[in-house]
């Protein structure tokens, strides 16, 4: 009983006034019952029941696949950037324009100036000076082109010319161009954020009368072509055969398309009396088509609107009546064939100034009462009386519990659900209004979508499902939200369950095999292009019920997802690989499809070696049967792939790029079937588990469809690369660096050369076969004598005394040495040294004290040294350790005094230098580096040394260190012994004992070479002693 | 939206104060202005601690899971979220508490093993976490109890929250208090019904028990009377109030309340208000004239209402001269609406009206004036070939009624409906 009005409505306050609510949280109205009303009753307490306005449970609809499936192969498309442009970036855009289109930007003026500015030298018109400047400038410009940011290339000349000519040269004054660009970018940004022209959606589905129990066929209307300016009528069929997941097939033979002059913005359809009336809106043109199940679409009439049309709406009452709203604020009733009749015109917004020229119109339950809407509210306009009478249906106000800033996005007459219901959406909420009780909403949802819902598709509840469903689609974020409600007739409306978000194409890549980065980028940007339409196909009656939600994106792609009502006992809908093909005869495609499958599937999908050309070829094959416009609309039914599965052939679709995904497909499938089997074992799988298995895998058929889709997308993108860049890539001229010309000549002429190359190749092959190295000796035979390049001499670091060089040299000795150097240099170990010095003094004092007694011993120092070296570690310690604790040993072990003949002794006793001896001994004993503890006096000398003969230093350091030590000895006459220069590697050690130990052990080793070197001629003791002397003397 | 934008907009807001509706996220463009939902709802705030970041991300996950109806996943995340309530930096915000309450209740709604204790737990805890949402959660709590049949428990809850006071109350809080009182009174009424029922069954006219029942009426009526003073939709409340008043034979008050509900201009145009008044008047055997008056108002409001059948029939029976024309208008208008188009009763009514009208001299003019603005679209609405075939299939009787009427209603047109009948009907 459609005419019934609910006997009792839910209680609510009626608040007038502007909206003032500010919602801070993002939970919408989750968890709320939002009012209850009593039912039954008037008897005992137990007879009373209550119903809430928001009912907790709705119907559970589950996706058959975890990702939407592309319906059509990808077409070429121009993608807008997914991120909205920042209007503040206009200088950058201007710069690009100036560089990329310099002819347009400066062409006219440069032609005029061309006569006066001559870039070449030697012309008579200009003065010589000017032409020189110009020449300079030319080179500057040339250089500038190579730069990444040419305008930042600094040049006085350029700047001067720039300031002189900047306001003359550009064809469009930069200020004007800038402001225009800013405006344009602003508009683009807004259009990307919210494209109000797309409101309503450019896709529709008209169901045909049921053809069979397990399929629902109808006509899908969608825009095609790159600019979405081609209206396609294509027959599609939603098929479901017992046990298999339903799938949507396009029937390509039944397609007609119409090329329009402008992009399709909105398609509004109504099916009345076996006839379907289709109204199509583009910005300035509106057209009406008519078709039916048997008849081809036929264009009835086209009108040109002066102002941009914002809405078109077909009458659900009278065939051929269309409402058109335009930005001027006017609504016209267009009776096809009888012209337009203005029914309402509003210059201003209805309830407050929302500064918006967007208007919307719909029909209502009465054929002569129109719904007129703008951003502020909705009015019912009775057009029977001459000054039309209006009354409010909805307004943005406190009554509707609007939030501040809320605006109306879409209004839709829900003729198929309830003859008096209207759906109204805002950025935050969706309302169900009953036109019999205006101003008060029957129902309100918080749809919780990120961008405002501007597409809507509804379908009534069927026999098995009692709830009416409303699908809201948003533009930019591609969201689709499913809302369910019931009531409105004898009982008050109540919403069922919380809003349910459906799948978005942009999220589908997660479920697909991993793509290569550049493909991923392309696919992501393609998949995340904003939505442009939404429609759904409902299959009811016959077998199982299901709904198919189709979404159109601005790139022209259509994705569909199929939802099924959840039944606790049915296993998950994914296929089991082998069984279906045998059980189900329906796997064989219907005749209309079979031809395509045979023509295309076997060769082009399965073939392991796939070339790009096959696509074009197969399309050619298909074409004759198609309509002239339907060049590339071949269907992509999943059954194709399933058929391949039946043939047990391996599917290698993407093999030339990512064959691992193919194997991944198989394993994924196996896993899935395994999981399915596992899941089937328990008798009653937990409901929650079932519903929360969000990470389900795609079935194989869908995977193949996706892979094909992605592959074709890549091919398309290869074909139409972006226009060649005018900017040259950054190049370095290498002509000066490498002169290849002689080589080229030689190669060209000399056959001997060729032969030699051949020989080398042969050798190389032989070497590879033997797994040996291709060394010079092997090659030289074939190449002939080659000039032997000498190995550079060893680096001699002793010439470099400045701290940096020192540090570098030291760092070769390892981390420890390097740290020690720093400690030394920064004076970190100063205290230690002072301590050591003190100890030394003390010892010396003691020695001096004792010297009087041991004068005999002191004279025999040299012998005692040699004696000690022969002794063990123990004796070393006794002789050389500076440790205070060992003082007794040293005292007893070695009689030391300054007065003694050998100059090495006192310096060796110096703690700082002692370990260096060790290092020198083990590595390169004679490597002469200035002592680190006396860096300052050395500063001047090594610099000069290096300046004088650096190359000799290299060589000597590398090759003949020992010889050079004597040779270079002269430089160090004033220095300490070369043996003593290196920093102590142990100085970095924190603990004294550790350092001590290493000193001890090291010293014993170090002494041996130094002593042995005594006997050798290279490192004679004599020059060292000589060197020491002056120092000792001060 | 970036900072600069916001700043610019702030400046703009200062400039045009007269447009208070202009939300701060609208842009200074010439063409269209639409304040979008805050696009960076989940965007990072400029400064946040790791704790806030993790809870924010957690909330995003919860939200996503809830929107996709993955309840278990949401519940798992939700186990972590309430630590936000122990936020020590600046204390948990109001919105955060409400969020916790809403999300947890929603998850409980879909948990297969949720018990009433769980609900009570969450309601009680969140109720006392902040003063601002106390009343709202109380109300929701009692709704939950009512829906699960715990009427007495719900009444206790409502009585507790009724006595709750906290400083200055906002408009929303005031309304919630009123609602709580009204719902409590509704439950009083239910108990009143219950007592009355048991009382009548025992047929024991005990005065003490009568007094007890009357007390329930008194407590209920105070609040019900109170809430009916506020503009709003109070269908359940007014019905039970009127029932009690009728029981105690306070017809004056009942009529006043119903009249106020129907004719007070501050109230929304609720068709039910008129229906209730009509039904009450009919119960009281009021004069036909008064009933017609009510229906006349209802006709203006809802010309498609099912009471229009009664209106048209009483107009038809009326002896006044103009009433027949009115009846014709009412029925024709009913037939304008899709829901009545195939209704045999209405068509028969129309037939009767026409028949009665034909006794008058100028009946053709009357029909013509009524049909003049329908000539353009009525044929398409009722009398096409398609309608003919449909009617003959589904409702031949309707066709029998409709076919002769076509000539009367649209005499100037040759309609396919009758043609079709001529061809196929015979």
TrEMBL record, chain A:
- TAF1C beta-propeller domain boundaries: 278-414
Q: Where is the composition biased (Polar residues)?
A: 629-638, 899-923, 1001-1015
Q: Which GO terms describe its cellular component?
A: fibrillar center
Write out the biased-composition intervals (Basic and acidic residues): 672-690, 733-757
Q: The TAF1C helical bundle domain covers which part of the protein? A: 525-586, 675-854
Output compositional bias ranges, type Basic residues.
715-729, 1025-1034
* Pfam family name, one: TAF1C_HB
A GO MF label = RNA polymerase I core promoter sequence-specific DNA binding
Sorted alphabetically, which InterPro entries does this protein's record hold?
Answer: TAF1C (IPR038801), TAF1C_beta-prop (IPR049087), TAF1C_HB (IPR049090), WD40_repeat_dom_sf (IPR036322)
SUPFAM superfamilies in the cross-refs: WD40 repeat-like
Region listing for Disordered, in residue ranges: 582-697, 715-757, 888-1034
Superkingdom of source? Eukaryota
Q: Where is the composition biased (Low complexity)?
A: 987-998
- PANTHER family registered for this protein in UniProt: TATA BOX-BINDING PROTEIN ASSOCIATED FACTOR RNA POLYMERASE I SUBUNIT C (PTHR15319), TATA BOX-BINDING PROTEIN-ASSOCIATED FACTOR RNA POLYMERASE I SUBUNIT C (PTHR15319:SF1)
Designated name of the protein: TATA box-binding protein-associated factor RNA polymerase I subunit C
Q: Which organism is it from?
A: Champsocephalus esox
TrEMBL record, chain B:
Gene Ontology CC, one term: RNA polymerase I transcription regulator complex
Q: Quote the Pfam families the UniProt record gives.
A: TAF1_subA (PF14929)
The domain of life is Eukaryota
Family annotation (InterPro entries): SL1/TIF-IB_Component, TAF1A
What is any one GO biological process for this UniProt entry? transcription by RNA polymerase I
Protein known as? TATA box-binding protein-associated factor RNA polymerase I subunit A
């Amino acid at each position: 009983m459609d005419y019934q009005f609910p006997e009792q409505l839910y209680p609510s306050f009626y608040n007038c006034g502007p909206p003032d609510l500010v919602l801070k949280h993002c939970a919408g109205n989750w968890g709320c019952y939002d009012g209850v009303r009593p039912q039954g009753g008037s008897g005992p307490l137990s007879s009373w029941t209550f119903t809430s306005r928001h009912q907790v449970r709705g119907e559970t609809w589950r996706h058959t696949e975890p990702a939407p499936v592309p319906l059509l192969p990808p077409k070429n498309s121009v993608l807008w950037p997914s991120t909205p442009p920042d209007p503040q970036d206009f200088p950058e855009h201007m710069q690009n324009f100036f560089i990329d289109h310099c002819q347009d930007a400066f062409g006219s003026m440069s032609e005029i100036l061309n006569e006066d500015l001559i870039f070449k030298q030697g012309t008579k018109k200009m003065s010589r000076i000017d032409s020189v400047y110009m020449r300079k400038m030319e080179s500057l410009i040339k250089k500038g082109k190579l730069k990444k940011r040419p305008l930042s290339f600094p040049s006085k000349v350029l700047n001067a010319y720039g300031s002189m000519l900047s306001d003359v040269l550009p064809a469009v004054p930069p200020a004007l161009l800038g402001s225009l660009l800013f405006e344009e970018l602003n508009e683009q940004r807004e259009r990307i954020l919210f494209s109000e022209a797309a409101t309503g959606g450019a896709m529709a589905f008209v169901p045909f009368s049921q053809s069979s129990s397990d399929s629902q066929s109808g006509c899908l209307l969608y825009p095609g072509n790159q600019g979405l300016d081609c209206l396609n009528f294509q027959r599609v069929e939603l098929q479901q055969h017992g046990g298999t997941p339903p799938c949507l097939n396009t029937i390509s033979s039944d397609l007609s398309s119409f090329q329009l002059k402008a992009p399709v913005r909105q398609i509004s359809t109504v099916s009345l009396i076996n006839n379907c009336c289709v109204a199509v809106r583009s910005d300035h043109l509106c057209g009406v088509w008519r078709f039916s199940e048997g008849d081809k679409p036929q264009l009835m009439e086209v009108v040109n609107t002066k102002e941009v049309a914002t809405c078109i709406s077909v009458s659900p009452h009278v065939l051929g009546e269309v409402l058109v709203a335009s930005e001027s604020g006017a609504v016209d009733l267009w009776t096809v064939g009888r012209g337009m009749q203005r029914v309402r015109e509003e210059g201003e917004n209805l309830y407050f100034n929302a500064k918006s020229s967007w208007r919307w119109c719909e029909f209502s339950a009465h054929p002569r009462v129109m719904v007129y809407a703008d951003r502020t509210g909705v009015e019912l306009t009775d057009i029977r009386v001459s000054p039309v009478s209006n009354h409010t249906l909805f307004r943005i106000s406190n009554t509707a519990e609007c939030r501040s800033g809320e605006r109306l996005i879409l209004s839709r007459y829900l003729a198929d659900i309830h003859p008096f219901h209207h759906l109204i959406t805002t950025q935050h909420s969706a309302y169900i209004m009953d036109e019999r009780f205006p101003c008060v909403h029957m129902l309100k949802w918080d749809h919780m979508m990120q961008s405002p819902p501007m597409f809507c598709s509804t379908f009534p509840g069927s026999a098995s499902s009692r709830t009416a469903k409303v699908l809201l689609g948003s533009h930019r974020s591609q969201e689709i939200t499913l809302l369910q409600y019931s009531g409105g007739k004898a009982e008050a409306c109540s919403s069922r369950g919380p809003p349910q978000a459906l799948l978005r194409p942009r999220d589908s890549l997660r479920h697909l095999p991993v793509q290569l980065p550049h493909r991923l980028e392309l696919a992501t940007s393609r998949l995340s292009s904003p939505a442009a339409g939404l429609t759904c196909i409902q299959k009811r009656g016959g077998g199982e019920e299901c709904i198919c939600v189709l979404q159109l994106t601005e790139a022209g792609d259509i994705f569909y997802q199929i939802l099924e009502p959840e039944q606790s006992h049915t296993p998950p809908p994914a296929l089991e690989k082998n069984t279906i093909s045998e059980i189900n005869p329906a796997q064989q495609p219907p005749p209309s499809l079979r031809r395509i499958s045979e023509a295309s599937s076997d060769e082009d999908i399965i073939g392991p070696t796939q070339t790009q050309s096959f696509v074009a070829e197969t399309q050619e094959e298909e074409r004759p049967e198609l309509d002239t416009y339907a060049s590339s609309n071949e269907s992509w039914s999943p059954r194709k792939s399933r058929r391949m599965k039946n043939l047990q052939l391996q599917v290698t679709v993407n093999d030339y790029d990512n064959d691992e995904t193919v194997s991944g497909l198989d394993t994924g499938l196996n896993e899935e079937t395994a999981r399915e089997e596992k899941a089937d074992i328990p008798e009653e799988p937990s409901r929650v588990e079932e519903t929360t298995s969000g990470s389900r895998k795609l079935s194989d058929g869908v995977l193949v469809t996706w892979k094909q889709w992605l592959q074709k997308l890549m091919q398309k993108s290869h074909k139409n690369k972006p226009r060649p860049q005018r900017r040259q890539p950054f190049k370095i001229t290498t002509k000066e660096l490498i002169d290849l010309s002689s080589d080229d000549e030689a190669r060209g002429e000399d056959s001997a050369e060729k032969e030699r190359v051949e020989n080398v190749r042969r050798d190389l092959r032989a070497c590879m076969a033997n797994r040996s190295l291709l060394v010079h000796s092997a090659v030289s035979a074939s190449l002939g004598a080659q000039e032997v390049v000498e190995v550079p001499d060893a680096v001699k670091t002793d010439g470099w005394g400045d701290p940096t060089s020192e540090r570098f040299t030291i760092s070769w000795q390892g981390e420890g040495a390097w740290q020690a150097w720093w400690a030394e240099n920064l004076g970190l170990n100063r205290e230690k040294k002072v301590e050591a010095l003190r100890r030394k003094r003390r010892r010396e004092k003691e020695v001096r004290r004792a010297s009087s007694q041991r004068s005999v011993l002191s004279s025999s120092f040299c012998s005692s040294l040699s004696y000690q070296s022969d002794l063990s570690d123990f004796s070393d310690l006794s002789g050389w350790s500076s440790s205070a604790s060992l003082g007794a040993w040293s005292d007893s072990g070695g009689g030391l005094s300054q007065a003694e003949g050998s100059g090495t002794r006192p310096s060796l006793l110096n703690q700082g230098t002692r370990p260096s001896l060790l290092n020198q001994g083990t590595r390169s004993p004679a490597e002469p580096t200035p002592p680190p503890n006396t860096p300052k006096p050395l500063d001047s000398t090594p610099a000069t040394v290096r300046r004088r003969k650096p190359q000799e230093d290299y060589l000597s350091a590398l090759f003949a260190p020992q010889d050079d030590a004597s040779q270079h000895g002269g430089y160090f006459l004033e220095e300490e012994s070369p043996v003593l220069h290196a920093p102590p590697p142990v100085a970095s050690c924190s603990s004294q004992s550790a350092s001590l130990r290493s000193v001890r052990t090291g010293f014993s080793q170090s002494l041996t070479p130094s002593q042995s070197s005594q006997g050798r001629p290279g490192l004679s003791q004599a020059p060292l002693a000589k060197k020491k002397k002056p120092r000792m003397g001060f | 939206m970036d900072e600069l934008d916001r700043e610019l907009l702030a400046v703009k807001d200062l400039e045009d104060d007269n447009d208070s509706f202009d939300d701060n996220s609208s842009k200074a463009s010439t063409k269209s202005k639409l304040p979008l939902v805050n696009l960076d709802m989940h965007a990072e705030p400029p400064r946040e601690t790791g704790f806030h970041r993790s809870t924010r991300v957690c909330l995003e996950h919860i939200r996503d899971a809830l929107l996709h109806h993955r309840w278990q996943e949401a519940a798992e995340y939700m186990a972590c979220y309430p630590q936000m309530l122990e936020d020590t930096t600046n204390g948990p915000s109001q919105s955060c508490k409400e969020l916790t309450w809403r999300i947890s209740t929603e998850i409980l709604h879909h948990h297969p093993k949720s018990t009433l204790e769980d609900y009570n737990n969450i309601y009680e805890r969140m109720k006392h976490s902040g003063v601002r949402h106390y009343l709202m959660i109380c109300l929701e709590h009692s709704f939950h109890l009512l829906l699960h049949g715990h009427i007495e428990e719900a009444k206790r809850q409502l009585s507790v929250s009724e006595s709750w006071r906290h400083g200055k109350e906002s408009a929303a809080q005031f309304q919630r208090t009123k609602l709580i009182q009204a719902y409590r009174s509704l439950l009083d009424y239910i108990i009143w019904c219950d007592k009355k029922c048991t009382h009548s069954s025992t047929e024991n006219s005990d005065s003490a028990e009568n007094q007890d029942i009357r007390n329930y009426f008194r407590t209920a009526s105070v609040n019900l009377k109170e809430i009916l003073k506020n503009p709003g939709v109070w269908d359940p409340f007014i019905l039970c109030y009127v029932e009690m008043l009728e029981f105690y034979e306070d017809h004056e008050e009942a009529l006043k309340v119903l009249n106020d509900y129907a004719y007070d201009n501050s109230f929304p145009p609720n068709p039910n208000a008129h229906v209730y008044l009509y039904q009450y008047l009919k119960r009281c055997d009021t004069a036909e004239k008064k009933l017609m008056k009510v229906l006349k108002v209802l006709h203006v409001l809802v010309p498609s209402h099912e009471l229009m059948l009664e209106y048209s029939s009483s107009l038809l029976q009326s002896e006044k001269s103009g009433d027949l024309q009115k009846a014709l208008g009412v029925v024709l208008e009913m037939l304008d609406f899709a829901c009545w188009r195939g209704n045999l009763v209405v068509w028969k009514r129309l037939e009767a009206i026409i028949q009665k009208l034909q006794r008058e001299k100028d009946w053709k003019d009357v029909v013509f004036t009524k049909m003049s603005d329908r000539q353009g679209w009525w044929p398409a609405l009722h009398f096409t070939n398609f309608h003919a075939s449909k009617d003959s299939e589904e409702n031949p009787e309707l066709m029998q009624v409709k076919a002769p009427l076509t000539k009367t209603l649209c005499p100037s047109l040759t309609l396919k409906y009758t043609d079709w009948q001529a061809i196929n009907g015979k």
